[in-house]
Predict the structure of 4-hydroxy-tetrahydrodipicolinate reductase.
Amino acid sequence: MKIALLGYGRMGKTIEKIATERGHEIGYKTNTKLDEEILKQQDIAIDFSIPEAAFDNITTCFKLGVPVVSGTTGWLDHLEEAHKSCLKHKSAFIYASNFSLGVNLFFELNRKLAQLLQPYPNYKASLTEVHHTKKLDQPSGTAISLAEDLMAQQAYTGWQLTNDNQIKSGSLAKPLAITAIREENVPGTHWVNYKSEIDEISIKHKANSRDGFALGAVVAAEWLEGKQGIFNMQDVLNLHEKK
Ligand SMILES: NC(=O)C1=CN([C@@H]2O[C@H](COP(=O)(O)OP(=O)(O)OC[C@H]3O[C@@H](n4cnc5c(N)ncnc54)[C@H](O)[C@@H]3O)[C@@H](O)[C@H]2O)C=CC1
Ligand SMILES: O=C(O)C1=N[C@H](C(=O)O)C[C@H](O)C1
């Protein structure tokens, strides 16, 4: 496939390495405004840019008939609008807050654990994420996905970042606490913890590098080729069928 990399930073460069190893061609890469003439000659676009640019990049691709794999976090207020644009232009789209196989299995574990602990409100849940100091958004997109899945099974009314009272979502009547920690060179670590007076149950995913995110994004792009519509990583990894 001829791939456009929208965002050529840490992830764009890792995706280039993995896509090339898998026999793809990088036909276009950019860190700024899109060149529509070159972009429309590509088979697919992979957007790992910045929150402010993602929506425009993605909808420009749909307008040009270029399917999109998007991993940029921090722009999800506009996700529904992006879906509408994809459907309007009969294009194809996959968004994931995390493309790695390990995290997508971890998402399944999180949903299962939240369901198992539903009858036991004495276990208080919390989330922690650790990322590198260059990360622009907090909490991470992955932590928000974990929180949303957990809250679908448990009696929390919203989530709140423990280290910044301004950052929250939903009602604070019974908030789920998320702690975001920033340390040099950490690719991404997430914990879900349940604590009672008697004991604690924790699950953790730690990325050792960015390769898993990049491989997942390239596999998603390969899977999306020739399809039309809106998909997610559960579709790509066939996780619906494994339940
Ligand atoms: N879904 C997933 O699996 C993962 C998602 N991410 C997310 O991907 C995004 C990028 O992460 P990194 O590569 O670490 O960041 P980065 O800061 O290294 O790269 C972002 C690049 O986008 C460029 N950029 C700025 N404006 C642009 C525009 N208008 N169009 C295209 N590019 C533009 C910047 O110059 C920069 O080079 C972040 O939102 C991050 O949270 C990161 C890792 C995994
Ligand atoms: O910015 C990052 O680096 C990462 N961002 C994603 C997120 O916000 O969850 C995925 C991964 O954790 C790395």
